[in-house]
Amino acid sequence: MRGWLLSAMLCATAAIVGCSSADKPTPEAHVTDVNGLRFVQASELDATRPLALGARVGLEHHAWLTDDTDRRVARVLSAYEAEPVGIDGAARARLRRSGFRVVAVPIEQVMEMHQALPPKLTWRREWAGQLTGWAEVLRGRSVTAGQRLIVDGREVIMPAGTPRFVARAWAAPTSDGAVLRTEVGVQVDEAARRDPARAVFDPRAALTLPAQGRLLDGASFEADLRPTHALIIVGAPEAEDWSRVQAEAAHDSGDDVAPVRESETPAYQVLSSESVIDADVFGPAIDGPQELGVYMLGGLDRSYRPMKAILVLIPRVPDEYRVLP
Length: 325
Prior knowledge:
Layout: H1 9-12, E1 16-19, E2 31-34, E3 37-40, E4 58-67, H2 72-77, H3 89-97, E5 100-106, H4 110-116, E6 120-129, E7 131-139, E8 148-151, E9 154-157, E10 161-174, E11 177-190, H5 196-201, E12 221-225, E13 229-235, H6 242-251, E14 268-270, E15 290-291, H7 292-296, E16 298-300, E17 306-316, E18 320-323
Parallel strand pairs: 6-14, 8-15
Antiparallel strand pairs: 1-18, 2-3, 4-6, 4-17, 5-13, 7-10, 8-9, 10-11, 11-12, 13-17, 16-17
């Protein structure tokens, strides 16, 4: 993972201009204005169309909780495990040892994935644009001081706080076309470091995001995201063999994936990155520490059904680049 400060290359080399194909026409009844941006309101995630109309370059991210009964998440996403994700093998292995599974889903198949793993309770969506500084993407389940979790195959004693995904991303040209160069890490937002009351009266007391907690090395990665695929991050035990899960799903009679049980509470959409987890799930009593990703992105709902959070990163990059003198 690079250091906290972004390389000066971003602002010193060249001005880059992006051009993209026209947005699909959208009925005005399905568009809402939020802080000057026009967002598409939809019941399904159509990744072929940007969330914010006219926003063509940057990072779009979605997160929701879904029912994981019968290991449904693994059964759906295992079909995409062979797709290239733009992450080097060593980093992907570290993520797996930390309890995270990362797959790439073709943009045109994201809606199908969204239908197979529908949101329960909350679907949070946000247009982040190009991020030259760290920004929060998704908050996980909170941890208590002294809680033990497994990161990169090793037990780690956690401080009190909330593990969260943070990211920064910017468009970059390559010999194979434009990519969204993205850095993602898990930071523990340490409650003990914050003093919100003091920050109200003294703005200098407000901590920048990097100062709010440490990044966990075993859960950080860099990726060149291509506009053809969305990156999906979920929690999964290191020992869970998705190839076997996929074989079991194919062997089952009837549909490859068990039917979805309707939630008592319909999903609603929120244009925010606040936690989709802490308010809606809690963890079972278990013996021994869990992997970070399994704990951070999973749990039980109030009916004791297994739930998993799904994080979707969608890169938006220009169709062509021109370097200006």
